Predict the 3D structure of the following.
Amino acid sequence: MLKLPVCPHCHTIYRYGEVKKTLYEKNHKCYHCNKIFEISKIRILILFLIIALIAAIFNVFELYMMAGINFIALIVTNIIIITAGILLIPFCIRFKRYNDFSDKTNRKKSK
Ligand SMILES: [Zn+2]
């Protein structure tokens, strides 16, 4: 599941930093083959749901298992979980090939 996306046309592997840049775009032109593809971010939602679930489990665990609630430890745990989740975002992005019809309309729009 944890794989960086590749160009759907030429299968060029995108590096972590490059994927991060595409986060704010709806579609992207491949630097290798110059073809336009769609950036799918649906998996990021799933990632956030998993992070929220993990954070909730850790919080409950800490609240029940630790003698005397240490709020700083609780906050630190949450920050670590959220940071780990943010670092995983580029691995959830997928590049999707447009079908022929939308590819043509997309090219018209970009001109
Ligand atoms: Zn390409």
About this structure: Helices lie at 16-22, 42-65, 71-92, 100-110. Residues 7, 9-10, 12, 30, 32-33, 35 surround zinc ion (CB under 6 Å).
